[in-house]
Amino acid sequence: MKVYFTSDTHSYIFPYDYIHEGTKDMGYAHLSSAFSDEGIIIDGGDVLQGSPVMRQALLSGRRPLPMASLFNAAGLCVFTPGNHDFDFGYDMLEALLSDLDAVPVAANVEDERGRLGIRHHLLIEREGLRIFITGAVTDYVNIWDGEKLEGLRLTDAVKALERERKEMESLRPDWSICIYHGGFGGGMENRGEEIAALGFDYLLTAHQHQTIEPFRIGDTIALQAGCRGEWAAELELGRDGSHAERLIRCSASTPLKGRIASLLSSGIEAEVNASLSAVIGHVDGILEDEGEVESAIHGSSLVDFINDIQLSLTGADVSVASLANEPVSIGPDVTLGSLLASYPFSNNLTLLSMSAGLLRRAMERSACFIDSSTSGPVQSPFFSPGKKERYNFDFYRGLSYAFDYRRPRGERVVRMERNGIDLLAHPETMLRVVVNSYRACGTGGYEAYREASVVRTYSEEMQDLLISALSLPHAAIPSPTDFSAIY
């Protein structure tokens, strides 16, 4: 019996990333076309945010959701929602799950309205094998999306799965599989090591967008299969206890299965491409993001532009923003596609009240992104081991500041001034600071923001605010932030 597992598709259906020209080896359509028709197909969530396909579907009210239709065409059997599937509240999660033929499985999701059909576990009997499947989503959903969870209650993932492990014993399955929309590394966000200790045969993890080859934690085989339809895990389970497992790479040359090819002729691809190619505005020059290291050393007019919009909306003293993993510069003519590539995040804003000392603690986290070396500045392996996380490096506007990347971590903010006040010498100075809603929750190593007071939250999405700003006759290039890096 073969089992296939994907996660974090973020509704990337087609073989391109909307950033680079040409096709890439990615997209669920081609990846799933390589799956055996007799296999059990599982997905570990994060559908309702990410690709321009999903954004277009949400804006147009398109139903069924394109990714749900593709899952159905591929024969998806089991679905465990990811944290982003809770971003839009109960009704949108209900829409996704009702569009799916697959059984939703999440042991730590309690449906207080009783409309979602979520099960805590599933026993599949096929080809003479009894396969027990359970799942859970990271506990951190309560922090990221707490105000959007009306009608839902998310409990402790490890405790919920421990109950399922005990329940499983009476069912006497041949194989047990646990899906966890979370990864490894500790803390409440990624509790893979704790869950592996429960003793399921397989732990299929997600959320971190990593490709982790199958490895053992005690008696459990754990893995992670990347994101955006680039990879899948394939398990082969035998009646005699034999097994094999591997990660398989998507190939854009894989012929599409008939039912998948038929689905993709529905017009969503042409609809998305037409919207992405439309020019939405003009800039008097180029809003630049020259590269991961270059922007961290010299600054970026693109992120200054983003920060200026955040300051204008909120009236904050200081604005904090980050850039995408893939550097993208835009202008003078800006298409919707180039804008979404440069700012792919579905973010809202939060205005905080905090001391300069607390803000400095957050800035020290950003200052860990670069290390000084004999060959010059380099991205630090300490900042995000095993995963590319430039989106967790923040830029600041409204301050005059400097990072000394040669100094020990935690001591790298060497200048921090505002309106002539040396904030390093006066850490008690209170500031109004605007950040995105995810950063306000303390994610990415920014726990300091969780100690700040929330002044206001904003419902407008940053992508929409950027589109509005760029729709002016000509957007101006902002003056550079007073920032310097020593390396």
Main sheet record: 6 strands, mixed
Instruction: Assign the structural class, choosing from mainly alpha, mainly beta, alpha/beta, alpha+beta, or little secondary structure.
Output: alpha/beta
Instruction: Point out poorly predicted stretches.
Output: none
Mean pLDDT over the residues: 94
The tally of strands reads: 27
CA-atom Rg in angstroms: 23 Å
Give the N-to-C terminal Cα separation.
Answer: 55 Å
Describe the 3D structure:
This protein has two domains: 2-273, 4-Layer Sandwich (Purple Acid Phosphatase, chain A, domain 2); 279-486, 5'-nucleotidase,  domain 2. Helix content is 25%, strand content 28%. It has 15 helices and 27 strands. The strands form seven sheets. A six-stranded mixed β-sheet has the order 4-3-2-1-13-14. A six-stranded mixed β-sheet has the order 6-7-9-10-12-11. Strands 21-16-25-18-26 form a five-stranded mixed β-sheet. Strand 22 (400-404) and strand 23 (413-418) form a beta hairpin. The longest helix has 14 residues, at 301-314.
For this entry, give a set of tags.
487 residues, alpha/beta, 15 helices, Purple Acid Phosphatase, chain A, domain 2, 5'-nucleotidase,  domain 2, 28% strand, 6-stranded mixed beta sheet, 25% helix
How is this structure best summarized?
By secondary structure, the protein is an alpha/beta fold. It contains 15 helices and 27 strands. 25% of the residues lie in helices and 28% in strands.
What does the secondary structure layout of this molecule look like, with pairings?
Layout: E1 2-6, H1 28-32, E2 40-43, H2 52-60, H3 66-74, E3 76-79, H4 90-99, E4 103-104, E5 109-111, E6 121-126, E7 129-137, H5 141-144, E8 152-154, H6 157-169, E9 175-181, H7 192-196, E10 202-205, E11 211-217, E12 220-225, E13 231-237, E14 243-249, H8 258-264, H9 268-277, E15 279-282, H10 292-298, H11 301-314, E16 318-322, E17 333-335, H12 336-342, E18 349-355, H13 356-366, E19 370-373, E20 376-379, E21 394-397, E22 400-404, E23 413-418, E24 421-422, E25 430-436, H14 437-440, E26 453-457, H15 462-470, E27 483-486
Parallel strand pairs: 1-2, 2-3, 3-4, 7-9, 9-10, 10-12, 16-25, 22-27
Antiparallel strand pairs: 1-13, 5-8, 6-7, 11-12, 13-14, 15-17, 16-21, 18-25, 18-26, 19-20, 22-23, 23-24
